[in-house]
Amino acid sequence: MQKYQAIREAAYEANMQLPALGLVLFTFGNVSAADRDAGVFAIKPSGVPYAELTPAKMVIVDFDGKVVDGELRPSSDTLTHAVLYKHWKEIGGIVHTHSTYATAWAQSQRSIPIYGTTHADHNTLDIPCAAPMADELIAGDYEYQTGFQIMNTLAEQQLSYQEIEMILVGNHAPFTWGSTPAKAVYNSAVLEEIAKMAYLTESINFRAPRLKDSLIKKHYERKHGPNSYYGQ
Amino acid sequence: MQKYQAIREAAYEANMQLPALGLVLFTFGNVSAADRDAGVFAIKPSGVPYAELTPAKMVIVDFDGKVVDGELRPSSDTLTHAVLYKHWKEIGGIVHTHSTYATAWAQSQRSIPIYGTTHADHNTLDIPCAAPMADELIAGDYEYQTGFQIMNTLAEQQLSYQEIEMILVGNHAPFTWGSTPAKAVYNSAVLEEIAKMAYLTESINFRAPRLKDSLIKKHYERKHGPNSYYGQ
Amino acid sequence: MQKYQAIREAAYEANMQLPALGLVLFTFGNVSAADRDAGVFAIKPSGVPYAELTPAKMVIVDFDGKVVDGELRPSSDTLTHAVLYKHWKEIGGIVHTHSTYATAWAQSQRSIPIYGTTHADHNTLDIPCAAPMADELIAGDYEYQTGFQIMNTLAEQQLSYQEIEMILVGNHAPFTWGSTPAKAVYNSAVLEEIAKMAYLTESINFRAPRLKDSLIKKHYERKHGPNSYYGQ
Amino acid sequence: MQKYQAIREAAYEANMQLPALGLVLFTFGNVSAADRDAGVFAIKPSGVPYAELTPAKMVIVDFDGKVVDGELRPSSDTLTHAVLYKHWKEIGGIVHTHSTYATAWAQSQRSIPIYGTTHADHNTLDIPCAAPMADELIAGDYEYQTGFQIMNTLAEQQLSYQEIEMILVGNHAPFTWGSTPAKAVYNSAVLEEIAKMAYLTESINFRAPRLKDSLIKKHYERKHGPNSYYGQ
């Protein structure tokens, strides 16, 4: 068995879900899977079509972004993944896509307001949109700084990465994460659906109110609270 | 043969239609099928992916919401189904989805105006949007109260559940019903299409008029009136 | 071989194209195929799902709307087809759908402006939207009058049915026709695409100008003029 | 082996990608593949459905638009392809489609603003929209003049065909090109996605700002600059 086989397979399976769920065109996305004991993650190789992926082609990278194993060059977004794994000890998977509706919100530089229970079933807050970085950071170690941009945006809003598992990077596109790569992919699909519904909601009623607090609390807690009764 | 086999299979088949018709993402929906003689209904287990469903996994619940048979936990929306079955003696199936366009109207807190014959072929009225519940009801027995919220909205508009087999729950999502679970699923797909057409109609002409009464009457009656001539 | 076999098969094949092209939900559409020598047409039976259709189930009707052969009830729109076949001697097929974007324009009670060459490749004119009928006509022989409503709208705009093979019936949905049922189905798919593009065009630029005459003429004539050079 | 076999197959494969990628309805598009040594290109025959295409049916044309080999009539847009191959020495493939969102922008007569990194990953500029031609050029050798219209639009904006591999022809539809026919098809799919995202971006925030220069530069250079690190 190849080394790091478990995260290779988890990353492979999760990457293949992106085209299956309609979240990527061509190679516009990537998923990684972390092995906390080994201090590494497996990530999609850069620019390789999904149809050509195999677990063996996943690239193994440590939490400082150094390639540990694999013959291919890792995703160009690898340093963003590395920064988040290094600082967020509990996450096991990260996804980046350019999914259509979430990306349109990112390009609009607006957070996605919480308009309904589909949103509240997953988050209690507007989905934040990180402001574009300062020019000197962009010109420097861009992908590395993107990781800090994400962390800083959560910090400014006093949010933990456990409270909200998705973010829009302004002018760019969404990132999501979770305890496993499969959960992070799930979050990407949910975000895309929430983004589409919010766009339609504003088109139908440009004065649509945010969801009221009691409903946010109820829907979030029935799925995620101490007395949750959703699922098995 | 397993007990309640007929409603298990009817609920299973109807649930499987939701992803086939594009009405659900992941597990965001559920269908139930009632056995009026036995005073119970079969409903989707909570949070189980459609691909893993079987008739045997359906949960049997009575009209007070008590689980009668089945090892899994029923849908978190079970009490809403129970309330409606208990009060509406003629219905045999209920569907809840978060289908994209119908949910966007629900989030917009607007009823869907009757703009054309596609709508009139199924209803003679705007599709009502129930107002969000009072905070104390939300904090209490939420799903149970959602059933009453639906019934009260129809009552306020002097509508019977036979006249209109679909409703939007404000800020939340649609519910539909019918004489059978298959008919209730049909109603969910029709509602989603009507919701999309109404959104586009307002985008194309923000002063689009409601359908006039003579056309509403004609189209509804050719399908549902005493001298109907649609179908076999 | 069954009587009227050729038009039974032509109508069957054309009807089956409607779901394949995404133009119908459930049974919301119908195609007919005419046999000019026999003075009859074959049309979809009313309310029968596409998956259950066969050539033998097509209903044979004369140009006065009288059923000549077949055990099922014909489409509820049969009289509209009959009127058009009776008055338009050169057409061999008619299609009625509730395709999403064309129906939204019909509900908006607006003609579709000619905004580009995709439109001009098929028509030189805005696609007309017939005004809703007078109430007494609706209450009377509605489908029969719909045929005259279509003919009158073309007459008022001094158009022949050869110049434009598609129309929107206001508040209702589109009808298309052509020399064969296959051509009429093609026209329905083209109309749906033109309707979607025109909606998007106005959303992107609400002052988008109509296509200028020289481009209308050029594109139409390269496909349909005496010196056409499109196709084989 | 048939003469010009390599470009016949390349053109065939690339044409078949258009329906697979959802970029064409019926026959509304065409791809060509150039053989620079032989001074010819292979192009789709006019009006032939994609399902009936074969490499042998591709038509071989020289850079003056003269048919060199093949029994079918070439695409009605052949002269546009010929002009571009004649003047742009480095391109190996050209695509023309009427893809929905890109065509809507063309009909709107607006260039597509650069709103995000999905766009900047491929171009550093707004995607230009060529103004409609003068009437006398349209009435004359229309497709030939369309080639010059495209070249002139780039020239006016001081762009080379290597800097930007896509354009909208006002009131008409997009053209894309590239070093190979496969690259040109890729560009058509990317353009369609960019067009859809830009439409949504303006709908969500009608004051959405263009992407700032530092981000344009960074994203373009990480894919295409001298120190690019995208891909293998």
Automatic annotation (TrEMBL), chains A, B, C, D:
The protein's Enzyme Commission number: 5.1.3.4
SMART domains: Aldolase_II (SM01007)
Signal peptide (from-to): none
Record InterPro entries: Aldolase_class_II_sugar_metab, Aldolase_II/adducin_N, Aldolase_II/adducin_N_sf
Keyword DNA-binding: no
Listed GO CC annotations: cytosol
Enzyme class of the recorded protein, top EC level: isomerase
Name the record gives this protein: L-ribulose-5-phosphate 4-epimerase
Organism whose genome encodes this protein: Chitinophaga terrae
Lineage, highest ranks first: Bacteria, Pseudomonadati, Bacteroidota, Chitinophagia, Chitinophagales
